[in-house]
Design goal:
This protein is an all-beta fold. The protein has no helices and 14 strands. It has one domain: 5 Propeller (Tachylectin-2, Chain A), CATH 2.115.10. The chain is globular.
């Protein structure tokens, strides 16, 4: 089930003040979450210029900050989850704003869309697991085509054609409105 954005302000265990603007959260069965045992949160710092970090929690512990685990990288090909935010590593480099994640059953991959302020575009990355590794960005649309664009929010109900077509909600500051957009994935065979 896709969860609403979560506003969160917490103190790290080292006394530093950590503020995350939003989390894109997801609890679907998919790569790395085959049993649906976790809610994964991909978070960015305040603003649209930070990188993405990953945390997870069991659904029954969602509101308990001490129950969250943070992705601290891989060791021997296995993800490492730590109880401290201080150990979390970046999985998608900055700049990232208004992220949205979903499991695309049709292509068997996680999809993550976001605004990249540096390229003035909505970008899409995909991965086998919520913690990556994530592909290089693919441009979905640009501010040249849609001035002052932001956001690219998806839900599983927006997937069509066995996951090869997806719709997303994009906003534009100028008309200050939202628009339902359509994109078609072109699948490329691995080499």
């Amino acid at each position: 089930m896709l969860a609403a954005g979560l506003w969160d302000r917490t103190y790290g265990t080292d006394g530093t003040y950590m503020t995350y603007r939003t989390y894109a959260t997801y609890r679907r069965q998919g790569g790395g979450n085959e049993e649906g045992n976790y809610i994964y949160a991909l978070g960015t710092p305040c603003g649209r210029f930070g990188g993405v970090r990953v945390a997870r929690v069991r659904p029954q512990d969602f509101l308990s900050l001490n129950a969250w685990e943070y992705f601290a990288g891989e060791a021997g090909g296995c993800p490492q989850w730590k109880p401290s935010q201080a150990d979390v590593v970046e999985v998608i480099p900055a700049p990232v704003g208004e992220g949205s994640i979903l499991w695309n059953l049709g292509i068997g991959r996680w999809m993550y869309t976001y605004l990249n302020e540096s390229t003035a575009s909505i970008e899409l990355r995909e991965a086998e697991h919520p913690w990556g590794p994530w592909t290089v960005p693919n441009v979905v649309t640009t501010a040249k085509a849609y001035p002052q664009l932001y956001g690219a929010f998806m839900t599983p109900s927006f997937l069509k054609d066995d996951g090869k077509t997806f719709f997303f909600v994009m906003s534009m500051f100028g008309p200050y409105n939202t628009f339902l957009m359509k994109a078609t994935l072109v699948l490329v065979a691995s080499t």
